[in-house]
Design a protein that fits this description.
By secondary structure, the chain is α+β, with helices and mostly antiparallel strands. It is built from 6 helices and 9 strands. The protein folds into 3 domains: 63 residues, no CATH class; 65 residues, no CATH class; 75 residues, Alpha-Beta Plaits (2-Layer Sandwich), CATH 3.30.70.
Length: 238
C-alpha cells in the first residue's frame, strides 16, 4: 500500500511480531517506508468505534508514548487468529499427540520437522502451526518426500528389541494399551487379543512389566531368560 501511495498513513496494531528468516527484511523495509507499528497489551486492547461524522476511529494505547493514540481510519483489515477445531478427534484416530494449542505436535527428535509423534505419519502446513503459503508448500514437499521414501521401499527395517503378544495368554484387559507411552498397542478383534506393531514398537518394555497375564515378552529375551540370568552370572563368577 505504501508503494502505491507513499503519502498514505499505514498503522499495524499488533500483540507481537515475529519475522523468521528473510522476513526481517520486509519488516525493516516497511519501517523505512513509514509504516507505523503499535504494540498493544491484553489489558488495554484497541477500541474501534464510529465517530460523529460517520467515519471509523481506532483508539489504541501506545506503550512507547505512554498515551492513547486516535487513528481516523478509511479502511480496517482484521487478521484473525488460526485456531484448530477438529484436531482432537483426528489425533485419536491416528494415535498422534497434540501440543498445548491443539495443533498436531511434531516429533520431539530434532531435525524431523514434518514427523509427527508417531512413525509413518507426517504433518505439514498449518496442521502443525500457523504458517504462510511458502512455508506450507515447503513442508508439504518435505512430507511427501518422506512418505514416498517409505512407500517405494521393498522392505522396512525394524529394531530387534520389540514386544510381542501371545494371543493365547492375552485377556484383552487393555493394560498395555493404557500404559504404552507411545500409543502402539491396540486390540485386534480379528485375533481376539492385543497387537503390537513391530515396526512402531520402541522396545521400552513397559507393557511387558505391566501385563498382568504375562502375555507380552520382548523378542530378544523371555521371562525365563531373565530369571536364569543371575544364576548364569554367579556360575561364571564362581
Amino acid at each position: 500500500m505504501k508503494k502505491q501511495n507513499p503519502d498514505m498513513d499505514v498503522y499495524i496494531i499488533n500483540r507481537d511480531i515475529r519475522t523468521p528468516g528473510f522476513k526481517e527484511l520486509l519488516y525493516r523495509e516497511a519501517r523505512e517506508k513509514g509504516v507505523i507499528f503499535i504494540r498493544y497489551e491484553l489489558d488495554r486492547k484497541p477500541v474501534v468505534k464510529e465517530s460523529d461524522d460517520g467515519t471509523v476511529e481506532v483508539i489504541v494505547f501506545d506503550p512507547v508514548l505512554q498515551k492513547d493514540i486516535l487513528i481516523k481510519a478509511d479502511l480496517i483489515s482484521l487478521q484473525t487468529a488460526i485456531e484448530p477445531v477438529s484436531n482432537k478427534e483426528m489425533a485419536e484416530v491416528f494415535g498422534v499427540e497434540l501440543d498445548e494449542d491443539n495443533f498436531f505436535a511434531a516429533s520431539p527428535e530434532k531435525l524431523m520437522p514434518v514427523d509427527s509423534t508417531k512413525e509413518g505419519i507426517f504433518i505439514a502446513g498449518v496442521a502443525n502451526y500457523p504458517r504462510d503459503i511458502k512455508e506450507c508448500i515447503s513442508q508439504a514437499r518435505a512430507a511427501a518426500s518422506k512418505a514416498i521414501s517409505l512407500l517405494r521401499a521393498e522392505y522396512l527395517l525394524k529394531g530387534g528389541a520389540v514386544a510381542e503378544v501371545d494371543p493365547g495368554k492375552c485377556a484383552v484387559c487393555c493394560t498395555c494399551v493404557r500404559t504404552c507411552p507411545f500409543g502402539i498397542p491396540y486390540i485386534d478383534h480379528s485375533r481376539g487379543a492385543a497387537y503390537i506393531d513391530p515396526l512402531l514398537c520402541k522396545g521400552c518394555g513397559i507393557c511387558v512389566s505391566e501385563c498382568p497375564g504375562k502375555a507380552i515378552k520382548m523378542s530378544y529375551c523371555s521371562d525365563e531368560m531373565l530369571v536364569q540370568a543371575p544364576a548364569v552370572l554367579l556360575k561364571q563368577i564362581a
